[in-house]
Amino acid sequence: MCRIACHIATFLALALGLAACQITPANLAPEQAARIRTLAIVSTVNDNWLWENKGFLAFARTRTVNKADWRLAERVRNVTRTALAKSYSLVPAPPGIDSPPSSTRSQGRQRLMDALARMAFRPDAVLLIEHGTYGTPRNVQNASSYMVGLGVYRTTHLFEEYVSLYTMLSFEVIDGKTGVSLALFDAVMPNSAPFSGPSFGDDPLPFIFLNYPDERRIITTWTDSFDDQPVTSSNAVRAAFYDFIDKSIPFTLRKSGLLR
Fold first, then answer.
1. What is the 3-state secondary structure (H, E, C) of 43-99?
2. Residue 130: inside a domain
3. Residue 101 included in any domain
4. What is the reported pLDDT for 13?
5. Between 29 and 212, whose confidence is greater?
6. Is residue 6 part of a domain?
7. Which domain range does residue 113 map to?
8. Residue 3 lies in a domain
9. What domain count does the chain have?
10. What's the predicted TM-score (pTM) here?
């Protein structure tokens, strides 16, 4: 969404004869990928995710869930490393920066730059993985707010219930020598994935349906707290997160040009 806003700002700036903002490409140029030999992977993703109930005439309830034994953050890192290990020489992340407890995007970026400056050997590039943000209601059926990070979202539309699982992961490729951003893209599921979100043009969206009228019902009964869900539903949500991470990350890395 930040890229869309920047495109709009660029158009307005050009129309008014003003300097346009610089846009980070959504894909890594082949010549840039070819120059990368050593790569550090830094992830600020944590194990927290949201259990949300919102929508038309619904009282909004959002709960933060932390299932440490699910190891979602670890899975994101491991799937990414496995996907890229054959294409690059993976080097350790800068000390003290990998998986900080929490930070804003600007704080995380500044910490990364400071850590790189202290390294005796700087990698050719850094892949920074963060919780992403989507702000278009179409991204999750009838959503009324921004979607951030990972979560499960329930809403209703024309008296029908929709429950969506979303995994907003933002990937940024940064030049390890200069700190220049080379590419910025978001994790999405392949278009062919069952019950994946509708495409926005040619760009698939980062969520799948758990409940869809007359077709699928994973969450049999919505509860105010995820801890009150039956074991079968809890296991199904965990499996859906795993499936999303396992399928979306390699697909997205290849789509962006980083995975060769």
1. ECCCCEEEEEECCCCCCCEEEEEECHHHCHHHHHHHHHHHHHCCCCEEECCCCCCCC
2. yes
3. yes
4. 34
5. 29
6. no
7. 25-256
8. no
9. 1
10. 0.81
